[in-house]
Each structure stands twice: as C-alpha cells, then as structure tokens.
Design brief:
mainly alpha; about 0% strand; Four Helix Bundle (Hemerythrin (Met), subunit A)
Length: about 140
Amino acid sequence: MTRAVETHPYRKTQILTASPAELMLLLYNAAICYCEQAKGRLDAGGFEAAHDWLVKAENVVLELSAGLRRDAYPELVDNLSRLFQFVFYRLFEANTSRNRQCVEEAISVLTLLRDAWVEGIADAGAYVAPTGSAGASGSVELSA
C-alpha cells in the first residue's frame, strides 16, 4: 500500500469498499490532484518535487489505461487509450522540459474525462460525487 493509504486509514477503507466505478473516479481525482501539485512546484521552482508529482500522475494515467477493456466497445476504448497516451506524453514532456503548459493540457483532458465518467456513472444509476483524491487501481469492464 502507498504511504498515503497507510497514514490515512479512512482512505484505505474508501478504496477497499469502493465499487469499480468509484475506483476509476478516485484514479481520475488522484491524477488531477498530482498534476495540480506538480504545477504548483514548477511555479515555485521546485523541480525535484514537481518531478515526483509528475511521476505519480504518470503512474495513475498508466493504471487508467491498463484498466480499459476492449471486448464490448473497442472503438471507444481505442479512443480513450489514445487520450491516455496523449496525457502521459504531455506529463512526460512537462517533466523533461519543466513546462507548465504541458501539465495544464494534461489537467484539461483528465478533467474532461473525469467529468464524462461522473456523468456516465450518474446515467447508469451509480452516481458518485466528483470530489476527493486517492490512489488506487482497478479496472472497469464496459458491457453492451
């Protein structure tokens, strides 16, 4: 488990009791939070700390991508996969060039995807408020 989960038992409970839809939302929120932290560190000239936050955000994006299942909606999943690749590469570019604009672009895409996810789970009757942040991995299977 991550240090954040170990030091905040409520997060551990939140993660262990979350539905797959809620886990995906937690991942989106964590990625956005990590990007915001990195952006703040870049602004302050804390490049080492920004690097650490960007790596965390990159790892969450990789988890989001790994959770995709192609069997039900392959075209949708392929498009999401390309968006996750774009976000990952923007974060990588931000990390190597210390470019704040790249982080902002990643946040913009992640926020749109997160908001669409919230809307989708609301339509499916599994509404979860788009707040909070924690790191967790999980996969969600899209079914027809």
